[in-house]
Amino acid sequence: MSERIDRQWQPPEDALATTVEARKGAGSPWAKALREMGAVDRAVYQAVADTPTPHLDAHVRRLSNAANFSRLWLGLAAGIAVFGGKRGHRAALEGVVAIGATSAAVNLGIKPIARRRRPERAADTGQARFVSMPGSTSFPSGHSASAFAFAYAVGRHLPGLAVPIRLLAGGVAYSRVHTGVHYPGDVAIGSIVGAGTAAIVAAASDGLSRSRRRD
């Protein structure tokens, strides 16, 4: 894996801009817009990295680590299944399936194609802020994708949990930027991929339920 990461080429937005220029010409406004979006993405990351937050760092780091391997979401799924009744059982099951489908889409489908480098963390940033740098590529954020996939699945079955669980998902997504392992664009696209994949899982689940009722 490390050899593959060492062969990273351009960030996704620059690679897309290059592709657009090859088709539309060097002066393409779409290519310029893509490069400007990439510049904004890196600038926002740098602004977060340069802002001292000693009272937040340890808490944000713990939240980020809690979501490793989806442990946070699997633990919540277990609690929802135990205490949520029939709807809780379905929400928990669909949430876990959505996490699995999203993880496959991100890690097997998108990351190998995008091949974005992880951010360079400043050497003088406090160690209390850091989590271990993953060995995988950066785009999109798998943590964010899994978080919003689970939040979508649970929220549609248990509306009372929709807002708090989405806030928690947003916190996990932000934590990946704060701890220096993702750019904001990684977590934004990861969140969209997660919610979109969960919507597909939900549609399949609803179709299966209707089919069973007809039988």
Automatic annotation (TrEMBL):
Taxonomic superkingdom: Bacteria
Protein name per Swiss-Prot or TrEMBL: Phosphoesterase PA-phosphatase related
InterPro entries found in the cross-reference section: PAP2/HPO (IPR000326), PAP2/HPO_sf (IPR036938)
Gene3D superfamilies per the UniProt record, alphabetical: Phosphatidic acid phosphatase type 2/haloperoxidase
Taxonomy of the source species: Bacteria, Bacillati, Actinomycetota, Actinomycetes, Nakamurellales
Domain Phosphatidic acid phosphatase type 2/haloperoxidase: 94-202
Membrane topology: Multi-pass membrane protein
Species in which this protein is naturally found: Nakamurella multipartita (strain ATCC 700099 / DSM 44233 / CIP 104796 / JCM 9543 / NBRC 105858 / Y-104) (Microsphaera multipartita)
Keywords: Cell membrane, Hydrolase, Membrane, Transmembrane, Transmembrane helix
SMART domains given in the database record: acidPPc (SM00014)
Entry's Gene Ontology cellular component terms: plasma membrane
Coiled-coil region: none
Subcellular location field: Cell membrane
Primary location recorded for the protein, binned into one broad class: membrane
GO terms, molecular function: hydrolase activity
